[in-house]
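Q: What residues go here?
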């Protein structure tokens, strides 16, 4: 659980940055989901440490004893539930992100022309959709 909480804490810190964009937030969410999914097949650093301590029956100088009253968490089920909930509650609609991606200047050519994007069918459509979504008038310069 420590490993998962550490990843979620890291994600939270990154999402609170003033420079965060929806596109970057989505990238960070997908990355965190991939890391959590990897923990299902390969334990994180802290879980690996705990498993070794359990196998040895000792953690540092403390002797470990089993307790039948304590039911261990099913790690894979916990992680899958966490992933499912993140995908359900935190992911953005792909179509909105796809439309917003046209506004990401990091994907533009180094010296875009004044009419960059008009020739690309998707770009004009995406901008039109965004204008409608945000109730902003759309004017096409492609005539």
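A:
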């Amino acid at each position: 659980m420590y490993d998962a909480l550490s990843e979620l804490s890291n994600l939270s810190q990154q999402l609170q940055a003033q420079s965060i964009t929806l596109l970057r937030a989505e990238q960070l969410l997908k990355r965190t989901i991939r890391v959590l999914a990897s923990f299902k097949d390969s334990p994180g650093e802290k879980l690996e440490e705990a498993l070794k301590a359990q196998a040895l029956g000792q953690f540092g100088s403390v002797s470990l004893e089993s307790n039948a009253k304590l039911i261990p968490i099913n790690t894979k089920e916990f992680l899958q539930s966490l992933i499912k909930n993140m995908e359900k509650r935190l992911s953005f609609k792909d179509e909105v992100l796809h439309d917003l991606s046209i506004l990401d200047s990091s994907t533009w050519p180094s010296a875009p022309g004044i009419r960059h994007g008009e020739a690309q069918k998707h770009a004009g459509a995406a901008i039109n959709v965004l204008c409608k979504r945000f109730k902003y008038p759309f004017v096409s310069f492609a005539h």
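A: Context that may help when evaluating the design: Helices lie at 2-15, 22-41, 45-56, 75-90, 94-100, 121-133. The mean pLDDT is 84.
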